Automatic annotation (TrEMBL):
Record-linked InterPro entries: Metalloenz_LuxS/M16, MPP/UQCRC_Complex, Pept_M16_N, Pept_M16_Zn_BS, Peptidase_M16_C
Function: Substrate recognition and binding subunit of the essential mitochondrial processing protease (MPP), which cleaves the mitochondrial sequence off newly imported precursors proteins.
Identification of the protein by name: Alpha-MPP
A molecular function GO annotation: metal ion binding
Family of the protein in this entry: Belongs to the peptidase M16 family.
Species, as recorded: Hondaea fermentalgiana
Domain Peptidase M16 C-terminal positions: 215-399
Amino acid sequence: MLSVTSGRAAARKVLGMNIRGLASQPSLDVEFPGMPELTPASNKTKPETKVTTLPNGLRVASEETFGQVTALGMFVDAGSRYETDANNGVSHLMEHMAFKSTENRSHLRLVRDIEDIGGQMAAASAREFMIFQGECLRDYVENAVDILSDTIVRPKLAPWDIDEQRKVIGYDLENMEANAQSVLTELLHEAAYGSETPLGRSLWCPERNLSKLGEDDLRAYLQTHFTAPRMVLSAAGVEHDRLVDLASKYFEDLPTKPANGVDPITETAKYRGGERRQSADSPLTHVTLVFDAGGWKSDDLVDVCTLHMLLGGGGSFSAGGPGKGMYSRLYTNVLIKHQWVDSATAFNCMYNDGGLLGIYGTCAPQDAGRLVDVMAGELLDAASKAPTAEETERAKNQLKSSVLMKLESRQVLFEDIGRQILTYGKHESAADLCKRIDAVTPETLQKAAQKCLKSAATIASFGDVSAVPSYDAVANKFK
């Protein structure tokens, strides 16, 4: 057994060794050889969005973030609103065909090339745009742009890839029935605009078209909509001049006009209101109550977005806490006072020439009637009197913080740049947007609510809908 005396001696020996070791290390004020010189962030150029239009019409936009990872993507002015009943679902199929076989790469090689650079690539389709996006280390931006150009400009559209993706979409459609929110989104657009109209047409490929759509449909859609003037290459975390050079190199083959020489057009969205309900085996009844909100280019856009924050809401089982919107109206007036409400959340859907603002709620089937009454009451209350100055200021601050916090993400930043340029032809800075939010007043919020409620109501429900009131009963509340 070690004695106390010998133990102390051993400790002194170890301590002495450590002290001698520390004494041999260089001082902290001595530069370590081979390390790059650090530049304080305050000495760097203030990040700004730069936009360049190439001779073929492709717009290239970026913002430097001074990080080691780059997020980038190609936005295309396409999507389900540019489809017809005959090819409805072609953009959904096009999304699934992204990053498959190309003229230069097999699917296996393309996947290997993405993994070799540690990259992540994906595609998505929406009602008014498609996006092919990626993320990679800054050193491999050229590889990522090369891969993007291959899948966008030179897709092979091989029969075996199409057959495989038809099966995948088929599985998605089967599983969609279990996703109440996805079903409701389609139902409310169909009810608000009409199933035969651009914004009312299904975002998902319908069963009737799944087996019909093939290479010819995909190729025709590409040749019509994938032209340089309808596209924006956006990035966050890259030098702008370098991105422009890469775009010129890899996207110079993009056509400037559709193959048939006729630019695609779509009819203007016309909100009309209405009802759609779908019975399903669900423990909860899901209901949305929405109105016309104008869209991205509406003069009331910022007021509508602030009104959205003021209504707020969430789920009854939220952990709560600061920043959770616990002082929003749907929390204080609905979730806290009505324990039978499972969730009540304000939401909006915005488009170039149309938009929706409303409330999405869930409850037990027998309470669906009461839920619709409560939701309607909150919307009517927002239009009947102006909110207090304190409530307005809180909603404005929440909107500004939401915008600024999200823009700290390079993924959100590059998407914000691309979407704005595709929609407006320019990019508005966060500072300018915050100034517009500061200009919102209680009176402008009330006017925005009143304007929305002048339109016809739209109701969509899913689950056990037997207790959901008739459309006329709900619409009469707003007359």
